[in-house]
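We give the chain.
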Amino acid sequence: MTTDDPVFTVGDVIRKLRKAKHWSIRQLAAETKLGGTAEGVGRMTISAIEHNPAHNYEKETLDALARAFGKTGAELEAMVTPPPKGHQRRASDSDLAPEWVAFTRRVMRLNRLAQSVLQMTAVAFEDAGAIRPQGGTPEGESSAVDRALSSTP
């Protein structure tokens, strides 16, 4: 890490070391298990540490992460560069709790799924003759829906 690339939290250090090894969060979690910790460090915990500067982690967690990189917890903490005086950190997506990011992604996927279902339903109704195709029905013809509506009081 160079002075051009400052790190202000332990999470920044872990993210930079992980990316330097071209590891995903999943791979880092697996490496912590190989490092002698029976359960290892979970992906959600690693993500929380990397993305939430205020995340409280236990010393054992930091030690397990450090071992995966061949370092000690104290060495990781020593790699943190304090921000310059008056430094204001810009807010970004990484400031959001991982649970909210995951929730938002799920909502967006569900929205795309709902749009696909609506499109498929419209095609199915068109094929069944229940609704007019996109171009409309020819003069004098009515769809099944139109006939049903006109027959109800």
About this structure: Residues 100-151 form one domain. The chain has two domains: 10-83, 100-151.
